[in-house]
Amino acid sequence: MDFDKKIGEITDFARENLSESRFSHSLWVAGTAAAFCANYNLNASRGFLAGIAHDICKEMSDERIWNLAAKDGSEADEIEREKISLLHGRAAAVLLKERFAIDDEEVLEAVAHHTFGKPDLSDLGLMIFVADKVEPTRERKNDLRALQKLPLRELARKIVLENIAYVKFKGKKMSNRTFDFLDWLEEVSKQ
Ligand SMILES: [Fe+2]
Ligand SMILES: [Fe+2]
What we know:
Layout: H1 3-17, H2 20-39, H3 44-53, H4 62-69, H5 78-82, H6 88-100, H7 105-112, H8 123-134, H9 144-147, H10 152-169, H11 176-190
């Protein structure tokens, strides 16, 4: 796969379909994911591509998001049915496959599951989950250099715990998948 070409096409699509602030967030996630990937000996181009793509459906209508996400064959859980926009990651993975011919399963999984995480998420998926939550324009300021000294799964565990606290503080509901994700991370970081 020609990553540079795909990254160019998806960046253009993101610029055209997102508000300025969400496009800027997407660029920051892409850059943060690429830097973290390089730090953890993962492919930085895949990190950048998944990062720039992760929110491409976030500002689409509920109907369009629902119709795209429905094609991935998974059920929507209760909180996704209540708030369709929570399916924007799954919708983006379908769009990447259909419109941009992305066939890298780890990239697709990382994009599909960036909001809630899930058990057995790949290392690339952990990177995108983390980068989305810690990129420098987020309101919570993290010391990115200090974070990158942690083993990858410990880093992900720390960010999931922070994310759960943040979502609670905002009075929003958390998906059970995030708790399953945390249980899995606790299990594998002991190994
Ligand atoms: Fe998102
Ligand atoms: Fe995001």
